[in-house]
Write a structure and sequence with these properties.
By secondary structure, the chain is an alpha/beta fold. It is about 45% helix and about 15% strand. It folds into 3 domains: about 200 residues, Rossmann fold, CATH 3.40.50.300; about 160 residues, Rossmann fold (3-Layer(aba) Sandwich); about 100 residues, 2-Layer Sandwich (Alpha-Beta Plaits), CATH 3.30.70.330. The protein has 25 helices and 18 strands. InterPro entries: DbpA/CsdA_RNA-bd_dom, DEAD/DEAH_box_helicase_dom, DEAD/DEAH_RhlB, DEAD_box_RNA_helicase, Helicase_ATP-bd, Helicase_C-like, Nucleotide-bd_a/b_plait_sf, P-loop_NTPase.
């Protein structure tokens, strides 16, 4: 067996799940020096921690023959920071201890507390819950800790960050003397160290974070985009990868709500997870992801913690994580159990340097790529379609009805027509990719400069001696310019209305003709009086700067050089 140190029922369960070799953290907790001792384990998300502590406390739950200890009360207590993580831990321990007959009870916020109390009263071997709900059950006398042999703090650093210190201390103080305390945490900040000193005895420290840091099965990528193009980039990244399941991390509930709406409108099968969703809504969203009805999950950090989706292969950091540890926590949702995954950071132009520094400091190798444009997405679609259609056909699995349908199509249409219809049907169910050409800061600036109507690449600025103070408005300025200059409104470019004058662009090809005609029509009465039209050697920006300088000069009054000068002026 791959886990010979483990009790037979657990080893069999692991083998049936395809666990050939233990991960580094699982191997570490099974070493002889770790048996029976308090543990402080530093390990990254996705390293197999749940199975690790399930194996670590087996001696406190099972006898040498693999039978359950009969204590009349729970033997093990696992505390997790969120409902999702607690439910996931319960699920993992459920299959691990299935052959032992152990009962596992979940106690989390948002679920029916009466049903939880009934489960506890019926007799639970292992209890998994969140700090607040566990404390509530203890205070109400529903959770008996008198026979507790081991306590596990999963994601201990996160629980402290979320403000659960008081609840954790209350629970640990209620546990009996001599119980084991196992702390699992991605990082070991000072509060964790202090808690370890208070509640543990002769704890063995196990650090596997360095070996698993960066998740070798995760390919890190980053794209630099204009801040206004983040949603566009996300759409094309989703379409380019077409992952079976993807998760998009956002910083706020509002961002989750906004992006979820955008993706649904674009035709993506997306669900949302954030603090504003009830537990029932979260469960429905996760189930939709597991059974394939949804393929994209938009979530906040807290809501997504503990999610384990076997089909998850793509993580997109829509909003950048606050640090490298958060980045790895997020990215660790994919690349698990030997599966490959991709984590993509969407980086606004103005935050690229900071992001590069964070990645370099954390030792995370990241490939900077361009956002896939429409052409690249469609090319990927073609590749995926060909790969699917050119797969060998298992004749034994083809039903007679399908054969009849194929024969009918061949009789009615040519093979080429059938292929075209198939390609169209395939593309019709996919969201349309976005046009995305500006991939770098320089390219973006160049694209902005090139945003001109045809014929306006080379223009001349003209000046009209009326501005906002005389209620200048494009709606009556345009007809005047057309009449006075003998041109159409399509030959007038940008219009900039200032306080006392208006600047407008005329294509250089017609500028001379416009100026000549405007001079000939000078003196014509307009609404509000005669208006002067003339060439401007300097554009509106230059003139605005000159006006600003004049105003600053007029408003400038030198301050007294010192207190004595000021006093003299006051006394003069």
């Amino acid at each position: 067996m791959p886990f010979p140190q483990s009790p037979a029922p657990l080893a069999q369960a692991l083998s049936s799940r395809g666990y050939d070799t233990p991960t580094s953290v699982q191997e570490a907790v099974l070493q002889p020096e770790a048996r029976g001792r308090d543990l402080v384990v530093s390990a990254q998300t996705g390293s197999g921690k749940t199975v690790a502590f399930g194996l670590a406390f087996a001696d406190q739950v099972l006898g040498e023959d693999g039978d359950l200890f009969s204590r009349g009360a729970p033997s093990a207590l696992v505390i997790a920071p969120t409902r999702e993580l607690a439910l996931q831990v319960s699920k993992e321990l459920g299959w691990l201890y299935e052959k032992t007959g152990a009962r596992i009870a979940s106690c989390v916020g948002g679920m029916n507390p009466q049903a939880e109390r009934r489960a506890l009263k019926a007799g639970a071997t292992i209890v998994v819950g969140t700090p607040g709900r566990l404390r509530d059950h203890i205070e109400r006398g529903a959770l008996d800790l008198s026979a507790l042999a081991v306590v596990v703090l999963d994601e201990a650093d996160e629980m402290l960050d979320m403000g659960f210190r008081e609840e954790l201390e209350y629970i640990l103080d209620a546990t009996p003397q001599g119980r084991r305390v196992l702390m699992f945490s991605a990082t070991m900040p000072r509060p964790i160290e202090a808690m370890a000193r208070r509640y543990q005895q002769d704890a063995l420290r196990i650090a596997t974070g360095g070996q698993e840091r960066g998740h070798g099965d995760i390919a890190y990528q980053a794209v630099a985009v204009p801040p206004a193009a983040i949603e566009t980039a996300v759409v094309n990244l989703l379409r380019f990868h077409e992952a079976e399941t993807a998760i998009l991390f956002c910083a706020t509930r509002e961002r989750v709500r906004q992006l979820h709406t955008v993706l649904q409108d674009r035709g993506f099968a997306a669900v949302a997870l954030s603090g504003e969703h009830s537990q029932s809504e979260r469960n429905q969203a996760l189930q939709a992801l597991r059974d394939g009805r949804a393929r994209v999950c938009v979530a906040t950090d807290v809501a997504a913690r503990g999610i384990d989706l076997p089909s998850l292969t793509l993580v997109i950091h829509v909003d950048l994580p606050r640090d490298a540890e958060t980045l790895q926590h997020r990215s660790g949702r994919t690349g698990r159990a030997g599966r490959k995954g991709t984590a993509v950071m969407v980086v606004p132009f103005n935050r690229r340097r900071r992001t590069e520094g964070m990645l370099r400091h954390a030792g995370i190798e990241t490939l900077w790529i361009d956002v896939p444009d429409r052409k690249a997405v469609l090319a990927q679609d073609r590749t995926r379609l060909l790969e699917t259609l050119l797969q060998p056909i298992d004749a034994a699995s083809v039903e007679d009805a399908d054969r009849e349908l194929a024969d009918t199509l061949l009789n009615e249409r040519s093979p080429r027509d059938i292929a075209l219809l198939l390609a169209q049907a395939y593309r019709a169910k996919l969201p349309e990719p976005e046009e995305f050409s500006a991939q770098t800061v320089d390219a973006h600036r160049a694209a902005q400069k090139e945003k001109h109507r045809a014929g306006f690449e080379d223009t001349v600025w003209f000046r009209l001696d009326v501005g906002r103070r005389r209620n200048a408005d494009p709606r009556w300025i345009l007809p005047i310019l057309c009449r006075r200059g003998g041109i159409t409104r399509n030959e007038i470019g940008a219009i900039r209305i200032g306080p006392n004058e208006t600047y407008f662009q005329i294509p250089r090809t017609v500028a001379d003709s416009f100026a000549s005609t405007a001079a000939k029509t000078a003196g014509q009465d307009e609404k509000g009086g005669e208006l002067t039209i003339e060439r401007s050697a300097e554009g509106p920006r230059v003139q605005a700067r000159e006006n600003g300088r004049k105003k600053r000069h007029q408003d400038f009054h030198p301050k007294p050089s010192n207190r004595h000068d000021a006093r003299r002026k006051r006394n003069a």
